[in-house]
């Protein structure tokens, strides 16, 4: 195994327990089937969209649901740990230390360094582990693409760009207007 000083972009054999010893250095450390993935901290436009969306979701959430933002690890097994930008789950699925239950909604706000990873790899990992809904939000070209899990695969349930509004029913009814997530 590679030492921490080398900071690999991808190395196999890591576990969730290994992540506890990683430094708090502003980088995002995630695992997919034991492969360590490292990405830089997000840009201001990413954080702006993330915060606005989290506020919107929290206001719309039913009492049985909880809304969290990164950094918070979702760890469905001992070799996978992802940090969705926004996590929504049933209140009774919130653990004291870790989130291990399937998420009701995972949202990724796209960044240049993670766009392909979020749109391809994370999509398959979330589907494999039963995440009910998955949204991709682009803050640069304001847009949202929403999926729901049907028979183990994601099916598009809505999309909107710019000033268009999209009303989604799951995990609870909420209307998202992509342009309103970022200041122009």
TrEMBL record:
Pfam families: Uma2
Domain Putative restriction endonuclease: 17-173
CDD domains: DUF820-like
Molecular functions per Gene Ontology: endonuclease activity
Listed InterPro entries: Nuclease_put_TT1808, Restrct_endonuc-II-like, Uma2
Keywords: Endonuclease, Hydrolase, Nuclease
UniProt name for this protein: Uma2 family endonuclease
Organism: Jiangella ureilytica
Highest classification ranks of the organism: Bacteria, Bacillati, Actinomycetota, Actinomycetes, Jiangellales
């Amino acid at each position: 195994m590679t030492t921490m000083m080398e900071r690999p972009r991808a190395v196999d054999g890591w576990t969730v327990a290994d992540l506890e010893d990683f430094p708090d250095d502003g980088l995002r450390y995630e695992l997919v089937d034991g492969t360590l993935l490292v990405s830089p901290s997000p840009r201001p436009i990413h954080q702006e969209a993330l915060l606005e969306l989290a506020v919107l979701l929290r206001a719309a959430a039913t009492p049985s649901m909880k809304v969290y933002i990164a950094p918070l690890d979702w760890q469905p097994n001992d070799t996978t740990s992802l940090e969705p930008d926004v996590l929504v789950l049933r209140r009774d699925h919130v653990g004291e230390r870790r989130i291990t239950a399937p998420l009701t909604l995972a949202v990724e706000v796209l960044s240049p360094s993670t766009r392909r990873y979020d749109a391809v790899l994370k999509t398959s990992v979330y589907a494999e582990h039963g995440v009910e809904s998955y949204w991709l939000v682009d803050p640069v070209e304001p847009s949202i693409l929403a999926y729901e899990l049907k028979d183990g695969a994601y099916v598009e349930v809505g999309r909107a760009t710019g000033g268009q509004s999209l009303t989604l029913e799951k995990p609870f009814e909420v209307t998202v207007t992509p342009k309103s997530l970022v200041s122009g």
